Amino acid sequence: MLYNLLAPLSEDFILFNLFRYITFRAGAATITAFIIALVIGPYVIAKLKSIQVHGQPIRTDGPETHFKKAGTPTMGGIMVLIAVLLSTLLWADLGNAFIWCNLLVLVGFGFVGFLDDYKKLKKQNTKGVSGRFKMLTLMAVGFIAAVGISFALPDKIDTDIFIPFFKNLYIPLGFIFPLWAILVMVGASNAVNLTDGLDGLAIVPVALTAACLGLIAYLAGHAEFAKYLHISYVPGVGELTIICGALVGGALGFLWFNAPPAKIFMGDIGALSFGGVLGSIAISTKHEIAFAIIGGLFVIETLSVIIQVVSFKLTGKRVFLMAPLHHHFEKKGWSEPTVVIRFWIIAVIFALIGLSTLKLR
To answer: How many angstroms separate the first and last alpha carbons of the chain?
Structure first.
């Protein structure tokens, strides 16, 4: 909004020229979202505590240390959702199609997560809305966003997948591109959801991934940088740096309250929306494969669940003591802070490897 109002006045007022720079607005969006999350956090926590008498339901088959968390309210992701939405609307170019497509995913996936959280709280068990309803709704939102993103992308690469480590190597998908986009968005949302099992575990990798995708969006939206790095030049996609910055700021604000011992849990409203919008940003920048590397921790957590289920169905034996993977290490005797910090380290390593794909050709 401020860009649309003040940037046109830059010729008459030189100070307003700052609003023309994505880097300035991304930094401002980060700080704005962080402050919003900090300010509304105590109110949101108090309100959710008053509504949620028993807090988030705890898995009966989970690690014993989790039972002491009973009564902690969930749906805390709503504070980040509000912070990201307000900050983006304040600092982004509202005439940019990429902004609206990605905000659709953020809000749409967040709404599905809200319904899931609400039903869990109402029934006081870990089963929310039906898996079929959740998947179909997420896929519907993802399809609409995918079509919008494909129209916003340049015609030459609108339905292609860019392959890292090679110069100008693309795989054309044609009419099945929306299916690929849905897979990335829905897969990412569920991967973040699976990772969100310990205090602070998921939110830091979300912030790291958002920061990396923000850098990628900025570079992909800059013709000279894109040419130098041999990556896809996508006009207008640099504006997504604003959403990424807002997500980093909102995530850090949430971590203030989610740090061990957590005063509030993220809930599906946060996990689904954050994972979904990270996936849609990766699609918009044509860096879906790099995104899988950057978010490698999410991939590992998801694979651990898949391996566990397949192994049990085929052999009747479990590979891990418990899935997702972070619970396996809890069962082995690792303390929760140890698991969280070591998984954060792994997330940083994957982020660095993913960023290296920008130059390795």
So the answer is: 38
Q: Mind listing the pLDDT tens digit for each residue in 220-237?
A: 999 999 999 989 899 999
CB 169 within 8 A of CB 162: yes
Residue 20 lies in a domain: yes
Please state the pTM of the whole predicted model.
0.93
What are the C-alpha distances in Å from 165 to residues 104, 161, 255, 337, 359?
Answer: 31, 13, 34, 36, 8
The rounded distance, in Å, linking the Cα atoms of 200 and 251 is 10
Residue 16 forms part of a structural domain = yes
φ and ψ at 161, to 5 degrees?
-105, 130
Q: How many domains does the chain have?
A: 1
Range of the domain at 101: 2-356
How many CB atoms are located within 10 Å of the residue 14 CB? Answer: 9
CA distance 29 to 19: 12
| Cα-trace Rg, the chain | 20
Q: Is residue 361 part of a domain?
A: no
Q: Which of 82, 85, 88 is nearest to 44 (CA)?
A: 82
pLDDT per residue as tens digits for the range 112-156: 999 998 888 877 666 778 889 999 999 999 999 999 999 999 998
Q: Which of 240, 270, 244 is nearest to 44 (CA)?
A: 270
> Quick one: pLDDT at residue 123?
72
CA distance 319 to 30: 41
Copy the structure tokens of residue 242. 């604003």
How far apart, in whole angstroms, are the C-alpha atoms of residue 105 and residue 184? 12
CB 102 within 8 A of CB 145: yes
